[in-house]
Amino acid sequence: MLQTAPAPPRIHPRAVEPVPFQPSRSLTGIRALVVDDEVDTLETIETVLTQCGAEVRPLPRQPPRSSARALGADLVVSDIGMPGDDGYALIARMRARGAGHGGHVPAIALTAYARVEDRLRVLSAGYQMHVPKPIEPAELVAVVASVASWSAR
Q1: pTM, entire model
Q2: How far is CA 131 from CA 3, 97, 100, 110, in A?
Q3: Among 12, 23, 71, 115, which is disulfide-ready with 51 (CB 3.0 to 4.6 Å)?
């Protein structure tokens, strides 16, 4: 019986330099609700999305008993790891509501946890996309544009 050498481990290349952010993609007409407990992250996301034309409503923590639709949002961008109720609790409350009350508003999860298991948990919970932290502005804009286009169909 022939023995073959084990396959070398798969190594994924990483960019040496960050992807340059140029607000060339338009998010005009998109109303985004951004939920995070870190003020710096909120301000960064608000700046990036606003530079691309989106209307952004930043919330320093989850809105109690309110829905994204009631707040006039086309989509939600939410951190997962927050003290108290986390992003999973937020998406559970959103998805429990009817379509007219924000139950079907698309949502993007932000998290520092980027393992396959983490992405699967985020998607299974009801988020449409997972964006790892630290946030890469160009990636965030592309994901927001993509998710917003899904909901417009």
Answers
A1: 0.79
A2: 42, 24, 27, 5
A3: 23
